[in-house]
Design a protein that fits this description.
Number of helices: 2
Number of strands: 39
CATH superfamily of the largest domain: TolB, C-terminal domain
Largest sheet: 5 strands, antiparallel
Number of domains: 3
CATH architecture of the largest domain: 6 Propeller
Shape: globular
Length: 553
């Protein structure tokens, strides 16, 4: 491998990584023995048709290829230049690939179509430009450049214009990774004497350190598809290893058990697998490991170097859950210490809209509450992951903020009348008293002989407005408001931003095509054919929001 290619594989702009050799063998696309945990990701299977862009030297120098994760057909070669072409990065729509090449004398960023055609140069600077990363909306590319002296992170438009510098530390800042949703960028900084993972707003503000590697290098951050976890490679245990942590820099966990080389890693579209570089067999090969480390699959088997994996983005079916049991409880918050609202009906699919961990670290799914009778009484409904069967891309479900647990104050009798209602009117066991009283229905009368504590009205009552939601054609799906009222019992103040959520009744037949209505910003088209969609509208009086459903046939 040439030194100029090694410059891009490892974080050698500021620090050099240690290449550690290991042992072990296997066939490409075959399972590698690993500990069994029985978790969701251990049960998941890689779709053999999913594609991965990567770099290989199998034809004499570093070129970009695309392969199917299941093997079979030979990888397709996309670049054929005599110079090195490395670090492929798929666009969010899966139609283009940004990459780095030295074909014009120094490292510059290029873009090409998914088949390798229409290769176009985006940067033109005598200094190093590399490590491209697409923004989730596909309008910008973050990259690293030495054009102002030290390596820093910049962003540019997808045509190469509008370059903006995000970091300006005299030490090295490199390896940007855009968070799903586009609000933040993880990156590697050498400002602490070694490479550490940092995160910043997409504008470059609020730069914050996430890792402490005790003199070792932490590198190659990659976000899980739901933005809840970050994988990275590190030498903190004296060898190259793959780790995951939550987005706040806590809950570290090492995934691999082999001593591997530190290199780029990337999450599969469903969030169940991470592809990464390993040299356990004496040269660089690609493996995919389950997101919990429970199982592993070898992806390439070639005597040349294979590295820089990047999964092609996909439009995946929404996450749904079901059960064949009669005793699966639906609770008003994640965890067994929350009140039971109802039992989940057997053999019926329920849409998942969020996820969170309970206090015992068990995973719970937030369900679309509009699928349950009397859902108006609660803010959210949850079911334990271990109690249900999952269908669709549950690994990409975004984190939710669960309702708080309200601990009774000293001297308060569980189930007694509170600011807005007794505990047992809010959909849970009154002996637990764990529901947030601010979400109780104010129109439920207090128990006999009890006078509720109602705050005095303000000097001047604000004017309240109603937001009406619906879906058409009727019966094809459901539409609900996710934002709690802030004016009266069920109304909103002028100018309030309200989130409206739509889900189809059968994802195999219908999809959410567009939104319309009289609220501010209500008239929007929906990209793709998703079974769910959310929209933020502005209250501009008594107004309406309508979700238009369409058939897939």
């Amino acid at each position: 491998m040439s030194l100029r290619v090694l410059r891009w594989i490892v974080f050698s702009i500021a620090v050099l990584t240690t290449v550690t050799a290991g042992a072990g063998a296997g066939l490409a696309n075959q399972p590698v023995p690993a500990a069994e945990t029985g978790s969701r990701s251990a049960r998941a299977q890689i779709d053999p048709s999913w594609e991965i862009a990567f770099v290989s030297e199998r034809d004499g120098n570093a070129e970009i290829y695309v392969m199917n994760a299941g093997g079979g057909a030979a990888p397709r070669r996309l670049t054929t230049d005599l110079a090195a072409d490395v670090h492929p990065s798929w666009s969010p729509d899966g139609e283009r690939i940004a990459f780095v090449s030295e074909r014009d004398g120094n490292a510059e960023i290029y873009v090409m179509n998914a088949d390798g055609g229409a290769q176009q140069r985006l940067t033109n600077n005598p200094a190093f430009d590399g490590f491209p990363a697409w923004s989730p909306d596909g309008t910008r590319i973050a990259f690293v450049s030495e054009r102002d002296g030290s390596p820093d992170i910049y962003v540019m438009n997808v045509d190469g214009g509008g370059v903006q510098r995000l970091t300006s530390d005299p030490n090295s800042d490199s390896l940007p990774a855009w968070k799903p949703g586009g609000s933040a960028i993880a990156f590697v900084a050498g400002r602490d004497g070694n490479g550490e993972i940092y995160v910043m707003d997409s504008s470059g503000a609020s730069q914050q350190r996430l890792t402490t590697s005790f003199g070792a290098n932490a590198m190659y951050p990659a976000w899980s598809p739901n933005g809840a976890r970050i994988s990275f490679t590190s030498e903190r245990d004296g060898r190259g290893d793959l780790y995951v942590m939550d987005s706040s820099g806590e809950d570290f966990r090492r995934l691999n058990t082999q001593p591997d080389r530190v290199g780029k890693a990337d999450w599969s579209p469903d969030g169940a697998w991470i592809a990464y570089l390993s040299d356990r067999d004496g040269n660089g090969e690609l493996y995919a490991i389950a997101a919990d480390g429970a199982s592993e699959v070898r992806l390439t088997d070639n005597p040349a170097e294979d590295f820089d994996p990047d999964w092609r983005p996909l439009q995946l079916a929404a996450c749904q859950v079901r059960t064949d049991r009669e005793d699966v409880e639906v609770r008003v918050g994640p965890g067994p210490n929350r009140g039971v609202f109802t039992s989940m009906p057997r053999d019926q699919l329920f849409m998942v809209i969020g996820q969170a961990q309970a206090e015992d670290e068990s995973l719970w799914w937030e369900l679309d509450k509009t699928q349950f009778p009397n859902h108006e009484q609660v803010t959210s409904l949850w079911v334990a992951q271990d109690d249900v069967e999952e269908i669709g891309a549950c690994g990409v479900v975004p984190p939710s903020e669960p309702p708080p647990i309200i601990i009774p104050q000293p001297g308060t009798t569980p189930g007694s009348w509170g600011p807005c209602g007794s505990c047992d009117t809010c959909g849970y066991d009154p002996s637990e008293c764990v529901w947030d009283p601010t979400t109780c229905r104010p129109d439920i009368p207090p128990p006999p002989g009890i006078t509720p504590e109602i705050p005095p009205p303000p000097d001047e009552e604000p004017e309240c407005y109603t937001v009406t939601v619906s879906g058409t054609p009727g019966g094809w799906g459901s539409v609900a408001i996710r934002t709690p009222p802030n004016c009266g019992r069920s109304q909103y103040l002028m100018g309030t931003s309200v989130t409206v959520y739509a889900s189809v009744s059968d994802p195999q037949q219908y999809w959410v095509e567009s939104w319309s209505g009289t609220c501010g910003g209500a008239n929007q088209d929906v990209v793709g054919t998703p079974p769910t969609s959310a929209i933020n509208v502005t209250v501009n009086g008594n107004c309406s929001v309508v979700a238009l459903f369409a058939t897939l046939e």
